[in-house]
Amino acid sequence: MRRPGRLALARGFGAVSTASDLVTRARAANAVIATAESCTGGMVAAAITDIPGSSHVFDRGFVTYSNAAKQDLLGVRPETLSALGAVSEEVAREMAEGALSRTPATLAVSITGIAGPGGSEHKPEGRVCFGLARDGAPTLTQTIDFGALGRASVRARARDHALQLLLDALA
Fold first, then answer.
1. Which helix H or strand E contains 109, and what residues bound it?
2. How many CB atoms lie within 10 A of CB 68?
3. What is the Cβ-side half-sphere exposure of residue 116, based on CA atoms within 13 angstroms?
4. CATH code (residue 114)
5. What pLDDT sits at residue 119?
6. Which residue range forms the structural domain that includes residue 107?
7. Which of 45, 167, 165, 159 is nearest to 113 (CA)?
8. How many CB atoms lie within 10 A of CB 109?
């Protein structure tokens, strides 16, 4: 029989390992990281800053849960939000680019999605959009439909995917 605490620790180990590798690789590359998070509410920033030495590579994290925060802190255009909604690759792009342009970071990741419960036919529960902006490179975007796994699982998978995107960008 599994105890809840053990299951939570087992699930979190991948994030710790990836975040540790990320901090090591970012330090070797002299990279500085920023995050712009909506549905994960700072989970990516927390995973990175849980690692000793992260202060050498992590500048800041923006938690922009509301559309107003996305506009005010990251410069997401109201027209983009009106036309496409917050859960879109274009908003993820603008979030990542806003984090990069407003900080000394050289690498920024963004997350916006529907963790659940809820969703719609066009934007189902578990849909998460990611952006990855780097100095001197085009911004990458990606959408993943994790499915209706429950709020905690969608958020954890989105965190883990964002960490992996950052790690891969430094490969």
1. strand 107-113
2. 12
3. 18
4. 3.90.950.20
5. 86
6. 28-169
7. 159
8. 32
